[in-house]
Amino acid sequence: MTAQVDVAIVGAGFAGLAMAIALRRAGRDDFVLLERAASVGGTWRDNSYPGVACDVPAHLYGFATHPNPDWSGLYAGGDEIRSYLERVAEAEQLGDRLRLGTPMTSARWDDEGDLWVIDTPGGGIRARTLVLACGRLTEPRIPEIPGLETFPGPIFHSARWDHTADLTGRIAVVGSGASAVQLAPELARTGAVTLFQRTPAWIVPRDAHPYTDEDRERFATHPGELARLRAELYAEGEARFASRSGDATASAAAEATARAHLAAQVPDLALRALLTPDYAFGCKRVLLSDEFYPAVAAGEIALVPSALAAVHGSTLVAADGSRHEADAIVLATGFATTRQPYADLVHGEGGETLAVHWFEGMTSFGSTVVSGFPNLFILDGPNAALGHSSSVLMIEEQAAYAVRCLVARDRAGGVLRLDPAAEAAYTDEIAQAAASTPWLVGGCRNWYVDERSGRLTLLWPGTVDAFRARLARADGTEFAHVRAWT
């Protein structure tokens, strides 16, 4: 059986829900929301490891249309965010539009029908418009480590947590990024943790604080106060861009804060040296933690300043030659980011896949539309991530742009076909803005840059204000054979 809709949205995390909200607000109810899992939530459904939390202030990490006065504190835990998304889906009455347990197995542009033909295990869908809201941190990256398959105990990625595993013995944590820094201190409460650190991270104080019952009551009864708090957090985030993007004064001040944090929590000079990055502040994701350094300093986490190189049964061999015994392995090794898994499933004009189109790295116009893929929008995809503030802000801007395009398309008629020249020009804009930033010249390897081309393909190299202004300048002439509509 084949259904027909105006818009098919793939993914029911923040991006998919944002698109559904934007469509509803525009009076466009002819859409379906496809979700491969059994519930909404995206990243915050998939990641259930001990200590999982967001490092963006909670009141900025939510939809503008769905303020939440009940956040428990400055930063929200994973369960709390997942519950928030479930409440949003319920409030938006998406039940009849939401198809859970329905993965997109392929999507093909039909040149004759001017629509997308989408395959799912439950049947086909024909949609005039396709929105990919699949997320960028969805597919775990499993490192190729010789002998990993010989390990006799539990082994799993942090985003596929095994809640049945016995983690009271010797636990090896592979990785030292955001997930590892959150989960390792939690695991150390019940087990003996050894952490394999290929590269140390810049870590700044989290300084989290809970909101009191009085705070939450005030937010609920005085929406203006909640709006002012969100505005303050937004301004703080925008100001933080300077230190992440290479401004000399701001970067020096932020690095000094990180060094002072390390010195205050790790008295041992030799250990402190092993935890000190040798690359520019902001080159890799800056982490927030008040618990990781003390756990390492106290010996609760045994630090191996080297990558895991090989596994021989229960013996783990580091690149520095040291050997360590383990009963369980947790891979906190990140995700497939620059090569998005959905790209192989989407076939545009002439049958070309997104993966082929992006063979040298992701490109787009407005971080949202791609030439050769008519009536297609991608949220939270190419150059839409942030290193300084809430990605939800970017997603909301993209959803608003997509709806604006659809309204103009329907008014003018025809199909939205991005002009390849507009995509090339936008790609050049990104390259020029990123050229002197730490992400490219800061002396590190990060997941923001595509190794095939050396281009920055994940991060937006500017503020949220700048992104909003850039999309506001899009007047429809980015699409071939369409007159300006602003």
From TrEMBL:
Signal peptide: none annotated. Its EC number is 1.14.13.-. GO terms for molecular function: monooxygenase activity. Gene3D superfamilies: FAD/NAD(P)-binding domain. InterPro entries: FAD-bind_Monooxygenase_sf, FAD/NAD-bd_sf. It comes from the Bacteria. SUPFAM superfamilies: FAD/NAD(P)-binding domain. Keywords: Monooxygenase, Oxidoreductase. This is Flavin-containing monooxygenase.
